[in-house]
Amino acid sequence: MTPQQVELVQSSFQKVVPIAGTAADLFYDRLFEIAPQTRALFPQDMTEQKKKLMAMLGTAVINLHKLDTILPAVKELGQRHKGYGVTADQYAPVGAALLWTLEKGLGPDFTPETKAAWTEAYTALAGVMSNA
User: Closest by alpha carbon to 129, among 62, 54, 71, 84?
Assistant: First the structure.
């Protein structure tokens, strides 16, 4: 990722933080709509899962400028997901749900450049996770 892309992801995520609860709701609602088979991978009560999602995103976004630092944790997360039954083909709908959520949450601030930056970030991190 370029420094400009990292900045776009980080600055746009700061606008998501105040609506984190809503963003998590939007994300999982969309994920289960476009990939209903993923619902079985999650607990019935999604409260803690939603908090974990936003915390994980926050950590990844804050550290995008130093990917080497977080790659071991990203790999470990990928291994845990594999243990939960997540398959490589399930990363695509997760990415689609994330981009959709950002578009809804950021509105006009979700510019084509911001979308491209988020796509690059997600693709890089999801690639590490799915290969773990």
Answer: 71
